[in-house]
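A further point concerns the way the authors explain their paired sequence and structure data. An entry of this sort, consisting of the sequence and the corresponding backbone structure tokens, reads as follows:
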Amino acid sequence: MRTSVLYGWHPNRLNFATWVIDSLKSGMRISVAEDHYNSPTLVDNLTEVILRIVGADATGVYHVAGSERISRYDFAMKIAEVFGLDRSLVTPVKMEDLKVWVAKRPRDSSLSVYKARHELKVGLLDAREGLRQMRALASDE
């Protein structure tokens, strides 16, 4: 299995979504790449699909990721929207303007989940659905 940009609640690990949430809650302005694309994957959804794949005794390579190709900036804007945070604190920038990545990254690291969806009949969430589930999980605790 291959996946892309994991996010969700974890007490000891920061991820893109929790970084955006924490930053915006504290009123901090953040710069986010508008030209870097990926397939954000809710960890809880990934876990469900992994269990399903193992139970199906499937073989081969499957892309198990969020069902949507989205820029980091657009993902940050959806995070702000779903969690009721100030979207005006998010500034779009180009990848080359960010000095946060040590290793070079491709502009597009999104994954097609067609094979997993159609062969295994698994439900993979888009960004908004995943974020809504993440928000609901926060309410349950």
